[in-house]
Amino acid sequence: MRIISVDMQRDFSTSGGACFQVRPCVDFIQKILVPHCRKQGIQLAEIVSDYRQPRPGAPFAHCVPGTPGYESDLPVDIKHAQSWVKCMHSPVWVREHGGMAAKSPGKPYADAKGFTNWLATVVGPPRETNSIVLIGLTLDCCVLCTAQELFFRGYRVEFLMEAVDTFTGSQEEKQSLFNVPLANWGQTLSWQELRKRTTR
């Protein structure tokens, strides 16, 4: 089992961020999951976003490299050194100079092979991975798109219930999404079950 965090960046997770909403999963990740991972020696893989312009369908830039909003809210000591930087909702979409503050971003393009290779390096190929547990933001957008891409590559996907939230932070919306459409791409996993699996 491996854990992948999606878009735990300060523009989403911190008060004053461009896309901030109160989302209970942020406190859970920071105060419960992170200490557990540190204690058990669990390393997280991370997908982050570079949402500079140009970006089709996006009215404004956020998660801009070199600004506080781009920074991850996960501590460095529990993360794999090689993060994946996407530029659209799906992790397959990237850009030249993604994540590089000192360079102008290129236009979005699909790099399915690059994402597959990153997964093989950081997580392992599907045949060697029991499951991938997704955490982060947001359940109705980037976490969902990531789950779809993982499913299509043959991975077993699980959503850690306490560690994901929707854009609005609505818990009613979250529970509804777990039934449709998320059940098409993965299964829900409780904190109690994750802790049981990962405690030595």
Description of the molecule:
The chain is α/β, with parallel strands linked by helices. The protein has one domain (2-198): Isochorismatase-like (Rossmann fold, 3-Layer(aba) Sandwich). Helices cover 30% and strands 18% of the residues. It is built from six helices and eight strands; from the N terminus they run E-H-H-E-E-E-E-H-E-H-E-H-E-H. The protein has helices spanning 10-13, 24-40, 112-122, 142-152, 171-179, 191-198, and strands at residues 2-6, 45-49, 84-86, 93-94, 109-110, 132-137, 157-165, 187-189.
Strand content bin: 15-25%
Enumerate the spans where pLDDT stays under 50 for 5 or more consecutive residues. none
What is the CATH domain class? Alpha Beta
Strand order of the largest sheet: 3-2-1-6-7-8
Q: Classify the oligomer.
A: single chain
Gap from first CA to last CA: 14 Å
Task: Work out the radius of gyration.
Answer: 16 Å
In total, the number of domains comes to 1
Structural class by secondary-structure content: alpha/beta
For CATH, the homologous superfamily is named as Isochorismatase-like
Mean of residue pLDDT? Answer: 97
| CATH-assigned fold name | Rossmann fold
Helix content, binned percent? 25-40%
Count of alpha/pi helices: 6
What best-fitting shape do the alpha-carbon axes yield?
globular
Number of strands: 8
Largest sheet: 6 strands, parallel
H and E string: EHHEEEEHEHEHEH
**CATH architecture assignment name:** 3-Layer(aba) Sandwich
